[in-house]
Amino acid sequence: FKFKKLTAQEMLVFSTIYELEEKGIIVDYILLSERLKLSEISIRDYIRKLISKGIPLLKNKENNKKITLSISQDLKKIASLSTIVQLRKL
Q1: Torsion angles phi and psi, residue 85, rounded to 5
Q2: d(CA 45, CA 43)
Q3: Best CA proximity match to 9, nearest among 39, 36, 40
Q4: Got the DSSP string for 61-84?
Q5: Tens digits of residue pLDDT in 17-46
């Protein structure tokens, strides 16, 4: 139900993180901003909105500097990205 409340842009950010993680790529603000052609500030804002809407997105600080982003493993066990996309359409 939480995913139905996301805007198209928020869903794009979430699905991009999910897809990159599935490929074994470490995701950070810089990578997302390059992939989605958005500023890092916009990406940070979308991440904040996703977390505030209850989407299980994790922010991990590495070496007290770089923040990496990941999708909760619990969510990945329950639903694939294609399942989440299908549920949004219902």
Answers
A1: -65, -45
A2: 5
A3: 36
A4: EETTTEEEEEE-HHHHHH--HHHH
A5: 999 999 999 999 999 999 999 999 999 999
